[in-house]
Amino acid sequence: MQSLEKLAKSYLAFEKIDISDFQRKARILQSMWRKERGFKAGEYQGKPRGNYLPMPWAKDTLSNYLSDTIKEVVTKEVLHQSDSGKFYGKPRIFNNLLSSQPLCFNLFAELQQDLELATKVFRQLCPYRVNNVTRIEFEHSPGRNDMTYTGDRSAFDVYVEFFNKSDEKGFIGIEVKYHENLRNTPAEIKGRYFEVASRMGCFKKECLDILQKSPLEQLWRDHLLAGSLLYSLKDGFKDGFFVFLSPQDNCHCQNAVEQYKQCLTVDRTFQSWTLESVAGAIKQNTKKQWIDELIDRYLNFEKVESVVE
Length: 309
Description:
It is a single chain. This protein has helices spanning 4-10, 21-36, 57-61, 68-79, 92-95, 100-112, 115-125, 191-200, 208-211, 217-231, 251-261, 275-283, 289-299, 302-305; strands spanning 42-44, 47-49, 130-140, 156-164, 169-176, 239-246, 270-274. The protein is 43% helix and 15% strand. Helix 1 runs parallel beside helix 2, helix 4 (68-79) packs across helix 6 and helix 12 packs antiparallel against helix 13 (289-299). It is globular. By secondary structure, the chain is of the alpha/beta class. The protein has one domain (4-305). The chain has 14 helices and seven strands. Strand 4 and strand 5 (169-176) form a beta hairpin.
């Protein structure tokens, strides 16, 4: 048995920017996954890092991804990108095992290619709203810098369209986090945000100041994007909501969610899901190996805890 810090160093995964045990464990877990598969450690800022894959090998092999189907989607979306409005962080989408963008594809690309499976999964996650899923997209915005929406460049990590139980058109905009602590520098606040917030009518006025600051600012902007899409006249949605998705043990994300909920008067347009609940719903509806590999890679923290004092 050894300390978490010593274990992190043994896997080239000790980073001072990790401010919680969860972040350290997540970095170690990705480094373990890499080592178990015999992949060499990549470099970042001139040093080998356990949660990185070497470039350009990582880009050439797409080894950050868990199945051939997922790799095909990444090839189309990222390598042969036709929509210049989408932004994928490169090279981290290829070589950074901790990055949430690869997690988005590993979690939802198989569902994009199998809408029957997607329908089963989202019916389980939203039993009173989703009837059938018709479309899944990545890094989707209804209109970047379009004042019909929030007038900025915000986008949903994952975007799902569906018909609800009343056969009305709906959508889900999903923000996916894994290792993040939400301590990013807030984006510039635009006057349009307050117009959308007023139209949505779900925010406590006394909370508007804290909604503009980390750790809530990104949740607020994505929620506003969902609201602007739901209430726009040209899109025809009768149902729609924003989902913040993160691991149940990411204390930074879970604390932010609880704080965010305290800022709402009603929450029909906001939900929080855990990575565990989504992965569990997928596993209950498919026997394909990729979901078992995803759960082992991203959520099997017992592998870390079993060797820590």
